[in-house]
Amino acid sequence: MPVDKIVEELNKLSVLELVELKKSLEEAWDVSAAAAAPVMVAAPAAGGGGGGGGEQEEQSSFDVVLTGTGDKKIQVIKVIRELTGLGLKEAKAVADEAPAPVKEGAAKDEAEQMKAKLEEAGATVELK
Hints:
The protein is of the alpha+beta class.
């Protein structure tokens, strides 16, 4: 199957379906698609954790989770597209499947900015 046909088919999948596909491929091929990401995230976490204090206060990466779109769903979808670079179909899927992660492993400042923009558009958002 040509690569462009595969990409075309992948573009039809929702974000959650893509996550399932990633997990299936990792299991089938005994690999980890996010092998480099934890290393990059772990370094700042280790540096931030050296100051002591509670674990919750020292958390350095956050998941931005959309819990509801409110009555301005179209505005929320626009903001999701702006923040993530997702296409219209994928951003709509995130909005439709709330609660759903908008971004995982975001820095504290970035996560708070994303939350503010989404809430400004009418969504309800949690940082985890």
